[in-house]
Amino acid sequence: MRITRTVAGRSRRVAVMATTGLTASALLLTGCSSDSDSSDTSSDANGKITLTVADFGQFGYKEAGLFAKYHELHPNITVKEDTTADEKVYYPKLLQQLNSGSGLADVQGLEVGRIKELVDTKADQFADLSKVIDVNEWVSWKAKQATAKDGTVIGAGTDIGPMSLCYNTELFKKAGLPTDRKEVAAKIAGGWEDYLKLGEEYKKKAPAGTYFMDSASAMYNAVVSSNAKQYYDESGEAIYKDSPSVKQGWDLAAEAADKKLTQGLAQFSDPWKAALRKSTMATVACPAWMAGQISVNAGDANKGKWDITTAPGATAANWGGSFLGVPKAGKHVKEAGELVKWLTAPEQQAAVFKAIGSFPSNKGAYDLPDVKTAKLEYFNNAPIGELYADEAKSIPETILGAKDGIIKDTISTQINNMEQRGTKPDDAWDAATNAIDKAIG
């Protein structure tokens, strides 16, 4: 399953968000398919070929009917998808296949938390997609993430995760807080510090058994995501110990835990899902894909009780996103490149958004009706197309590092320990840094 668009916290990757008219069943996150050998490409005497696409979680192509449509447009090509539910299982296997030069699919899904490592160490094993796609079609920072120093582009952008805030209007009303999305946005306009102040207001009149936020680690990831410099600097050196964005996120997370503003639930865990059903948490940091998680797990009984507003502060943020790459070792490199070009074109990205809610990285999709006028019925018809498109255009270019995912996962785990076990912030930080140092060398 595609749980969060970063390797961190998201067990990573389900990105599902219901647009108007979608049913809950269309949003259910499934790790669809098998882990069979993705090297099973073939061609017959009549020139018909099979292209394999290996990915993880839910990229939405089957749900949007795109593979079937591609076959209609190209009768000689059949597309076969091999999906691994967990990206943490998928990625080590991909590295092994790249190292051996065998077992690779014609098209491979690439997670944003891994892309820097692949760009720096494996770029020569991927076809240069700059010769196939127009990188200027994508939001600029997305294209740069998959571009090597020599200009080689190893991946075409699929989705992104522009940030917002999802909130339970019923709980807000009971706590005496505003429920109108513009009024809520005004309350948190000063940034995540204002968000915690709003949490303290909520706590004063909070309905019994409820909490202001689901997880301090989720808030931490949202805070860090709004900064260009996070875990690495421009030279590729890990700077997480001295990073201002990490310090800000950590301090805010520690404050939230200390003031009992958080329910302390690891996102996507069974207790987290149960809390959504029971309406015990009032806010969730909401990259684009998160709304689907809420609607599916909170269920029909909570439809209309949630809304979406802009994220705290004036700085746009991105949490998550993926790419499609074409290994040079594939048997049909040229045809695979053409498939990637088509799958990541505006019309197809809009179709995926309509089907499962993964927000496009191709700017051309933002003016298409299925994106531009999209509203989310479950969330009081929140104008998500307009909201996320505006956010996407102003997200700062992030400096990525080779081990971003490991660093983020490890810090998130220790924040959970502060919430759930009462671990002191200094002890939690020492545990995080020691574990990270051992993992990244």
In short:
The protein is α/β, with parallel strands linked by helices and 441 residues long. The chain has 18 helices and 10 strands.
Characterise the protein shown here.
By secondary structure, the chain is of the alpha/beta class. The chain is built from 18 helices and 10 strands. The chain has helices spanning 24-27, 66-73, 87-100, 112-121, 140-145, 169-174, 181-187, 192-204, 216-225, 244-258, 270-278, 290-298, 333-343, 346-356, 369-372, 384-392, 404-420, 425-440, and strands at 42-43, 49-56, 77-84, 107-111, 156-168, 211-213, 281-287, 306-310, 318-325, 359-360. Strands 1, 2, 3, 4, 5, 6, 7, 8, 9 and 10 form a 10-stranded mixed sheet that branches. Helix 2 links the parallel strand 2 and strand 3 (77-84). The radius of gyration is 21 Å and the shape is globular. The two termini are 30 Å apart.
Descriptive terms for the model:
10-stranded mixed beta sheet; globular; 18 helices; 441 residues
